[in-house]
Structure prediction request, 106 residues.
Amino acid sequence: MTERYRVTIQSQMGPRKGILTLSYQGSYVTGSLDLVGHVNAVQGIQEADGTIHLFHRIKTAVSTIPCETVLGLRAGALRGTSTSRAVHMRWEGALLCQEPQEGAEL
Prediction:
């Protein structure tokens, strides 16, 4: 299954809007974060309680920030936090669409 979320990340430079796309294969999660004109690859795992742990970079005009992001998904809403050495960023988002995985049986 693939999910697409409209997200807002509260950065040190103010709120940044983007699109998070997540694809699931068992507990493994891959996807992308389209933010401030850059598409950043994401990967991680989904725990049994639905919490998603992502490992990724956020590229900006001035730097690239390696992050660990923990997200909770409930009823189409997404909330969580990205952390790196010097930065903590809060996430909020809403589900835009859900699509079955290509090649998956219906």
Q: What stands out?
A: The longest strand covers residues 14-25. The chain has no helices and eight strands.
